[in-house]
Design goal:
single chain; four-stranded antiparallel beta sheet; 3 helices; 7 strands
């Protein structure tokens, strides 16, 4: 079956709570500093911008990490059905120490460029590169990357 889910990755609850809690705390503290002891107006605007950006990022991380990533024989997608990459378009899977990848994750290089997308804490895409991981379990990500490498090698006849 092509749509049978072979592997899944999801953000762990403790990492979600800690990550969102830290971002929210930074946002609130910076905003508090801007209000409690206002510096020069330019710096106050800067502090409000940093505080607002931190709170916005906390919101984005919380909603993005509610989803999960699924691997089937034909595609890498989110649990909500958003296509990340087709297996036929994948050139390589890199999980090396020096790869530009999310923490606890792996990097996928595709044959075709796509629009830049980002689900903070779960995955991102810039051009031909897709980073999977972040607030995910290292074991789940390693398992998915190994299965994905095997599927890609099988498609190319390299098994």
């Amino acid at each position: 079956m092509q749509d049978e889910v072979v592997a899944t990755i999801q953000a762990s609850s403790p990492r979600r709570w800690i990550g969102v809690g830290m971002l929210s705390t930074v946002g609130m503290l910076v905003t508090y500093v801007a209000l409690a002891s206002p510096p020069e107006p330019a710096w106050q605007v800067f502090l409000f911008a940093v505080g607002g950006a931190s709170l916005w990022l906390a919101y984005r991380v919380w909603h993005a990490t509610q989803d999960h990533i699924e691997l089937t024989q034909s595609e890498l997608r989110t649990g909500s059905g958003r296509l990340i990459a087709k297996v036929a378009d994948i050139e390589s899977v890199d999980r090396g120490v020096f790869a530009f990848k999310p923490s606890n994750g792996f990097l996928v290089r595709t044959k075709l460029k796509d629009t830049n997308q980002w689900a903070p804490g779960l995955w991102w895409r810039i051009g031909r590169r897709v980073g999977v991981g972040g607030m995910t379990s290292a074991a789940e990500a390693k398992f998915m990357s190994e299965i994905l490498s095997a599927i890609c090698a099988d498609e190319r006849g390299l098994s």
